[in-house]
Amino acid sequence: MKRRATGLAMALGCAVLLGSGDLAAADLKAHLLAALDSPEGRSDGDLSGPMAEFFQAQTRSSAAVRVQVRTLTKFAQVGCARLQATLLQDDVPTREGQRVPFAVRYELNLCRDGQPPSEGVDLEAAARGLSGGSPAQR
User: Could you confirm whether the keyword Signal appears in this record (predicted)?
Assistant: First the structure.
């Protein structure tokens, strides 16, 4: 369970960095945008820079961090898709002293301009949620 919680925390951390415009996520964001632009809807490669260092610090492994991005579906809005991003790393230590492969996978909706698509967004429900409306009102 701890491993799942760590993976979720890392995925959320990555998503927050992507949305913040932080330079630490620039390499990962480049892979996401490359998948949007690719005719095959894919981008694979090594992650470098501050984002890779963040990942390595979390896993306590200096092994290379790989990234795989796949387009799951394209939206009607031009340049927008649902993407699946997977960060992979070999040689990650466990509490038991083993060294195992580790992966974090998450999905996100993204447009070429870095924003989420408006397609399928219920703006009234979002406004109620932000204003603190009760669940019955949502």
Answer: yes
